[in-house]
User: Which sequence fits this backbone?
DNA sequence: ACTTGCTTTAGACAATGTCTATTGTAGGAT
DNA sequence: ATCCTACAATAGACATTGTCTAAAGCAAGT
């Protein structure tokens, strides 16, 4: 555990939002000016491997990092401003995929992304 | 309808797979050598706007283009080789998101991505 | 103090996508 | 038939995001 890794972990802990790698880097630099982009990427990759952080890609731009890795959840995204909320749908989508639709795959995971318009954007 | 647009449409029609923009470009160049990358991107963008083609991003690399836009479906992705199958789960995931989990959003769409290992990769 | 091995750094590189300025082209107006 | 206008296509620069590499730093054990 180096100073750099501690800073990256602090940034993710402190924010309850879904930051991109660059946003994590910007906030990390504010706390530790000499931290490099590569270190942020490396550390984020390690945190993902350790299962401490989830990688989500709700738009096709940058990956976002979700510190809420220990409670399974899905995402609700505003199509206009990109705001992201964690959501917990009822039911288990894995059970909704019949064997006949699995094509011999061993299905282990499912990712659900709801899209819509958030109250802010609807008001504007 | 120009020659370039016809070629892009033909490429998507002829292939039942999920091509990246670059793969579309490569196949288009084979049919019409002087077609440019920008034209392929523009045409794909137009087809998406027209609702003729769906944009899917199952990995965080390139977007893929799915000509099967008129039958709603979701995707099953091999975590190892990236193979993609269209699947049709039973039930409606939109109904699985209670009002209390919508945070005032107007939810209009849901995208479900199943992940697993395909038979080929499981055998290897 | 020296060695060994991991970490960090800076910057080059790669992949994907967008933008701009220029050129081409097609169809109507004269 | 020629010209004008508007849209389309092109080449290439540029932007963003991410990965890789070579060099330097640092820490722990000998």
Assistant:
């Amino acid at each position: 555990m180096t100073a750099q890794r501690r800073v990256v972990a602090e940034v993710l802990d402190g924010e309850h939002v879904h930051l991109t790698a660059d946003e994590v880097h910007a906030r990390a630099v504010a706390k530790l000016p000499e931290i490099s982009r590569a270190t942020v990427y490396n550390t984020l990759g390690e945190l993902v491997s350790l299962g401490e952080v989830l990688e989500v890609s709700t738009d096709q731009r940058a990956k976002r990092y979700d510190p809420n890795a220990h409670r399974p959840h899905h995402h609700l995204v505003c199509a206009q401003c990109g705001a992201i909320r964690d959501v917990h749908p009822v039911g288990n989508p894995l059970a909704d995929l019949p064997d006949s639709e699995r094509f011999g795959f061993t299905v282990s995971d499912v990712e659900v992304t709801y899209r819509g318009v958030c109250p802010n954007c609807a008001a504007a």
